[in-house]
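Hi team,

As requested, here is the filled-out complex form for the nicotinamide-adenine-dinucleotide run. I kept the field names the same as last time so the parser does not choke. Let me know if anything looks off before we queue the next batch.

— J.
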Amino acid sequence: MRVLVTGGAGFIGSAVIRHLIDSTVTEVANLDKLTYAGNLESLASVATSSRYRFYQVDICDSIALDMVFREFQPTAVMHLAAESHVDRSIDGPSDFIQTNIVGTYSLLEATRRYWSDLPATEKSAFRFHHISTDEVYGDLEGTDDLFTETTPYAPSSPYSASKASSDHLVRAWQRTYGLPVLVTNCSNNYGPYHFPEKLVPHVILNALASKPLPVYGDGSQIRDWLYVEDHARALVEVVTNGIVGETYNIGGHNEKRNLEVVEAICELLDELAPLEADREQASSYKELITFVKDRPGHDRRYAIDASKIERELGWLPQETFETGLRKTVQWYLDNRQWWQRVLSGDYRLGRLGSDH
Ligand code: NAD
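And here is what came back:
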């Protein structure tokens, strides 16, 4: 396979590329604009592979997209490029509309131009895999309900509405033009190389700096957590063996209240990086937990029914929440340079016109 990964310098995209280079023989092109969320240092372990190349391109730039398709000649596209942070979408939705909706449209059109001219066998073997979120389904009322692939869409935030929109565009491009698409909707990811604005790394890094650990509202919002490398394996399974036109929900069977997640991180840090005994200081990181005003429109509960991908493609998560979270906390303790360069902004040095 020759896979064009969009958003490959992001959290999940970089995990997908590391997996493709380390565990398969796939040729990979990473197409990324390098917004604040893109970090090529997350790809340091694979950057020198002869099977890896990078294009700094905006998915809204049709001319540059055509050039990449002509040059790289992919057999599949895995589309992860997006604005992904819900709080930023509330503060300023514009970039979300532009990248997630208009950008997905430009990418679909560039893909269609390239795919239409392929010889018949390559055309039918081609795949466009759109990576989406469980947030498109809105929130769940009942405590036992789960999102399935047929749950109606009811997005709540500008982020989830823009992702829902892009899902609809992708499905329309199959129905109207016959483009061979696959869609996956995944729950909350966590793991190494996660940008510090997201809950898990934010809590780890604030705790290590003895700063308050902010929890929205009463912390009772429930999310279903999946270790990022389990997600990357699922995505590669879907693009390789998924059935065209199908949607697969991906989740970790790990429903946790936000407060439970924060407390679990504190307990791991108490064990792995204990606070120094000092009467002035807290004795457990839990003492840093601070409740803050809830996010507007905050969904109460998300939970994924991942039985279809398990049954049809044989995928199962390898990490439980406990093993994955321990690995994650340990990774942040062992890779201080990666996150210190993110916090200082040094990870952006040497980029071409990527300011955002
Ligand atoms: P991320 O914010 O870490 O990375 C996004 C990447 O896209 C960055 O490298 C950024 O530079 C790039 N990008 C942004 N705008 C671009 C543009 N216009 N052109 C080209 N590149 C651009 O996001 P993530 O957490 O890795 O999420 C990846 C995908 O997975 C997103 O589509 C997201 O909606 C979806 N998803 C994320 C989660 C999660 O928990 N993080 C869960 C389910 C689905």
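Two things worth flagging: The chain has twelve helices and twelve strands. The mean pLDDT is 94.

Thanks,
J.
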